[in-house]
Amino acid sequence: MHGRNNGKKLMTVRIVKHAFEIIHLLTGENPLQVLVNAIINSGPREDSTRIGRQGTVRRQAVDVSPMRRVNQALWLLCTGAREASFRNIKTIAECLADELINAAKVTDQSYSA
């Protein structure tokens, strides 16, 4: 695998640990419960697929499978935290904590909203 951020498991564990500590300090709630609520709220319930042949394409609304919903929610949370910390004085752990808190509260400031 030659993708971005490969082979950095220890760094990821440290970032998530710091983010959970920040979440506990800011909200006073269990950080794992905040994570679960963020995943539930940021996952899409409906998606669109391409239906058609021979060049004519129509978009059809379809339900999202539970596994894809969780995967897409995690992708949205990670992308939002990464983009928020890019060229910013805030650390990635602080941005991840903010993203999880905003997604759990279903605010417009969340990337997945």
Automatic annotation (TrEMBL):
GO terms under biological process: translation
Taxonomic superkingdom: Eukaryota
Record Pfam families: Ribosomal_S7
InterPro entries: Ribosomal_uS7, Ribosomal_uS7_dom, Ribosomal_uS7_dom_sf
Keyword Ribonucleoprotein: yes
Any single Gene Ontology cellular-component annotation: ribonucleoprotein complex
Keywords tagged on the record: Ribonucleoprotein, Ribosomal protein
Residue span, Small ribosomal subunit protein uS7 domain: 6-106
Family note: Belongs to the universal ribosomal protein uS7 family.
Family matches, as PANTHER family: RIBOSOMAL PROTEIN S7
Protein name from the UniProt record: RPS5
